[in-house]
Amino acid sequence: MPHGIDISGESCRGCVNCIKACPTEAMRVIRGKLKIIEERCISCGECLRICRHRAISLKETEWDSVVGKRPTLLVTDPALCTQFSWPPDPSILQDILRDMGFDPIFKETALAFDLAALAQARVIEHDSSREFPMISTYCPSVVRLIQIRFPELIPNLSPVESPLETCIDIWRAHHNRYDIPSTLAVPCPARIAMVKKPLGREASSVDHVVSTARVAREILSRNYTPAKPGGALVPNSRWVSWAASGGEARHVRMFETRPLRTLAVSGMRNVIGILQDIELRRLKGVDYIEARMCDMGCIGGIANAESSFLSQLKIENSGFSTDISKKETSVIEDMFNAGIWKMQEPIRPIEQMPLGRDMARAMEKLSELQSVYAELPHLDCGTCGRPTCRVMAEDIVRGEASLDDCIFRLREKMGNLSKEMNVLSKRLVHTMTPEENE
């Protein structure tokens, strides 16, 4: 499975901080160099946050190759609108991006987010065959976490596709143009991975991907002054609220025909905790869960330039309109009935590396794993380059490590060897042993 980060072997110092931060144990430090097990990586960016040596970076498209292809459709995650000193008004940003040579499709983006919110509400209210609470699929890291660690919760995942994909499909259908490349501005490596391996579809509608920080730096470096600072927000800018935790849940409730009980959860530990609660059937009466791997939502993404606290303040003070006209509702309802909001393919579990090819072999390996694990110190220090002793035991059973990789086992072995050498050094051959009488 592709991920959204690059590794610099020259910069990696083998400090093992990243392997301790990874929530899915996808990282190893072997012979002082970082390695990622792709089928375990969820592209959450925790390793990127904690790396002090800049050995990990975003795998984004080179900026020159993006701006060199004109015209280019530009789709932005809502977080981009919050990266500047002016209000998070898409119409302000739209003028600036056009001046830079992009064609931002904010009209279709707003329509796609409205459609996604309405579809979530309709599925909750009318699809009695679904597992509840229904879990948002907007955050790719959350979905991949479920695929890897909580596969039994896959039936709880929403069937609604990401509006960041849908908006491009809507624009191309409206304009009958499929030859213009599209670029997506993203706040995290998870959305980069979404482009390389999309959720619920065979191929992404996005051609290139850049970070919101890169776009923001380009805009700020040109000293743009908004044409209408502090002006009134356009009616359909409510989609920007999805950038902060709780924005999606509020948007979904705008289309409810009966009271919906929703939860908004952000942060890796909180998300894992709520998924465990769902797994144990502790959440009763909850209809919908908006889950974001980053603290405070997408504004907390590692690929942003602005403080997440300032971004949240801007959203809270913006007063996005919750009024939807009958004309807008009619258009959204028609698109909902057409089914363009649905995922094209079902989400499936991500298979992990098996211990054996058949059940008998796997059980034999599992028994061996338990024996190896019992010999390890259970300190989970990470000095072997694995996040835990349990993972170390798995790698040993698979033939990818040895007990000597454990520093404590190696120190014990060297201590025993030193004692043996000390004993042997005192046992001289008889020709060199002096007579006691002399």
Sheet with the most strands, sense and barrel status: 4 strands, parallel
Low-confidence stretches: 229-233
Describe the strand arrangement of the main beta sheet, using strand numbers. Answer: 6-5-8-9
The counted number of beta strands is: 11
Number of domains: 3
Task: Write up what this structure looks like.
With 438 residues, the chain is α/β, with parallel strands linked by helices. The chain folds into 3 domains: 5-58, Alpha-Beta Plaits (2-Layer Sandwich), CATH 3.30.70.20; 63-338, no CATH class; 359-431, 3-methyladenine DNA Glycosylase II, Chain A, domain 3 (Orthogonal Bundle), CATH 1.10.15. 39% of the residues lie in helices and 10% in strands. It has a 4-stranded parallel sheet. Strands 7-11-10 form a 3-stranded parallel sheet, with helices on both faces. A two-stranded antiparallel sheet has the order 1-4. Helix 5 (106-126) crosses helix 7 (163-175), helix 5 (106-126) packs across helix 13 (326-338) and helix 14 (359-375) crosses helix 15 (389-397). It starts with a strand and ends in a 13-residue tail after the last helix. The model is unreliable at 229-233 (pLDDT under 50).
Features:
3-stranded parallel sheet; Alpha-Beta Plaits; alpha/beta; 4-stranded parallel sheet; 3 domains; 16 helices; 3-methyladenine DNA Glycosylase II, Chain A, domain 3; globular
